[in-house]
Amino acid sequence: MTNLEIEAFMAVVRTGSITRAAQFLYTTQSALSRRIKTLEQELGYTLMKRQKGMRSIELTPEGQSFITVAEKWRLLWEEAREISRMERHLSLNLSAVDSVSTYIMPKVYEDFLLQNPEVSVSIRTLHSQEAYGCIESGVVDIAFISDDMYVSGVETVPAFRERMLFVCAADAHYPQTVHPSQMDPARQIRFPWNPEYDQWHRCWFDSRLKPWVLLDKMSFFEEFLFRGENWAILPASAACRLKAQTGLSVRPIQEGPPERLIYYLVADRPMGEPVKRFLECLDRRLRGMDGVASLLEFSSSVKETKAESR
User: Fold this and answer.
1) Cross-referenced PANTHER family, in alphabetical order (predicted)?
2) Both 124 and 234 in a single domain?
3) Which pLDDT belongs to residue 302?
4) Were both Cys, which of 61, 65, 90, 193 would link to 197 (CB 3.0–4.6 Å)?
5) pLDDT value at position 306?
6) pLDDT of residue 167
7) Residues 188 and 242 both lie in one domain
8) Burial 271-303 (b: 16+ CB within 10 A, else e)
């Protein structure tokens, strides 16, 4: 079974006749008929009904079933032909949780693309659990997550940490340094940042008292925060960016939540060159941000310590 034979069969299926299929493939009717006859001999069954006077072809039941197989063959052939092109063209598939993707990564993406124009980049926004699955399956090369777990074949490496800050409207009546006891849960816009944050939150706020709004996407956030005494606790990357863009007030927290730790995920195999270059761009970006500390230069030793603790 060859690609020419599959091509001939699919052309007849699409055009509905041997004559039109031969014209479509720029070959003769006799040559195309020979290809299909050879294919039938190799398969051991007839694909098309042949009767004199028939202008359009009619497939046998086996021919109908073979269409799916032929389409799979065509796709595999195309993938095989792409291998040599893929080897010459670098690609990077990455993902990040929503807040990191929104407030940290855009400038990193811009720098990376300017410095590496030969690399094709695919970007996704994924929750932590989804990211582990995509790394494990090879769909994503590197992912940035907030909730770490153990998955065989996936390395979880600390990337950076950042302070958690209190954010409110500029005219809200809160002290310059805010204590959790001064935060009204009924006016809270809450994000489930990570398990460590949730644990801190349970220590200070009665779980029976619901926040005003519970969000899991930063894109909805600004619409709520400008109203009166509403407040939220955000990582420094988001808080400082929003302050610069909107004039919101950002204040430190006394006895506040632990710093947020962001990890990157990679498959447990040698790191590709595009991933290394991206981490270098990220490291440069992180070192210029207030309230954020890059951990990338310590990632190897931290990874070993983390693996031993498990």
Assistant:
1) HTH-TYPE TRANSCRIPTIONAL REGULATOR (PTHR30126), HTH-TYPE TRANSCRIPTIONAL REGULATOR GLTR (PTHR30126:SF40)
2) no
3) 40
4) 193
5) 40
6) 94
7) yes
8) ebebbebbbebbbebbeebebbebbbeebeeee
Six token digits for residue 301? 């030793």
The β-bridge partners of 178 are: 253
Q: Do 16 and 75 lie in a common domain?
A: yes
Give residue 56's identity as a one-letter amino acid code.
Answer: S
Backbone phi and psi for residue 260, each to the nearest 5 degrees, phi listed first: -80, 130
Q: What is the pLDDT of residue 308?
A: 42
Last residue in a domain, options 53, 87, 121: 87
Q: Which residues pair with 90 in a beta bridge?
A: 119
Of 4, 13, 60, the C-alpha closest to 31 is: 4
Average pLDDT per 10 consecutive residues for the chain, totaling 310 residues = 86 86 88 90 87 71 88 79 59 92 93 92 91 92 93 94 94 93 92 91 88 81 76 94 88 96 93 92 94 76 40
Domain count, the chain: 3
d(CA 271, CA 166): 38
Of 118, 137, 111, 78, which is closest to residue 281 (Cα–Cα)? 111
- Whether the CB-CB separation of 47 and 9 falls below 8 Å is answered with yes
Q: Which amino acid is at 49?
A: K
**Stated pTM of the model:** 0.66
Domain termination residue (choose one: 87, 117, 141) = 87
CB 169 within 8 A of CB 212: no
CATH of the domain at 132: 3.40.190.10
Supply the CATH number for residue 36's domain.
1.10.10.10
Query: Strand 213-214 vs strand 154-162: parallel, antiparallel, or unpaired?
Result: unpaired
**Domain interval for residue 212:** 164-251
Least Cα distance to 238 among 159, 291, 295, 180 occurs for 291
End-to-end CA distance of the chain: 52
Residue 238's pLDDT is what?
92
Asked if 270 and 232 sit in the same domain, the reply is no
